[in-house]
């Protein structure tokens, strides 16, 4: 009985001591990242007509976690002490809008059915490590569909992988910044070749019928 009481006393003392170590301590706030300023030069492309852009992303990219995985693992993880300033879906949407706006207006909604609509879907936005952990890349995957009126003009799949300068969260963020800009520029180049023949045809008009009086006056 004495031994049991002594054991319980020691256990209680250790529990209180460990709890006391955490009293008054405030965990450090997570480091927060964004995509930085849109300062990279854009490809030299001709001006294009206004487009409306709709944007969607996989549910995992609606959270602010910085996602990483090893190789083709089906178990992505998020850094515990690193976050995005906004959900990746919002950060990527804004960066794509900014860079596409260099060639022509990007609207949030279609003005009418004659306004081409670009439908963009973000499937991946993560840091991918090699199996040995010695290297990693920032990977972004987009699918885009261009709609004119009620018809699908064309579609494309854009996968960009940029090497990370360091094998940590900061390196992954730097790689994803680069990959996002490259993906946006590839999208702009695709639009430049797709829209010209498909959605920028000159409007055709039917001449008005001249009245007899107008004919006589001519």
From TrEMBL:
This is ABC-type transport auxiliary lipoprotein family protein. The keyword Nucleus does not apply. InterPro entries: ABC_trans_aux (IPR005586). Residues 56-188 form the ABC-type transport auxiliary lipoprotein component domain. Keywords: Lipoprotein. Transmembrane segments: none annotated. The keyword Lipoprotein applies. It comes from the Bacteria. PROSITE patterns: PROKAR_LIPOPROTEIN (PS51257).
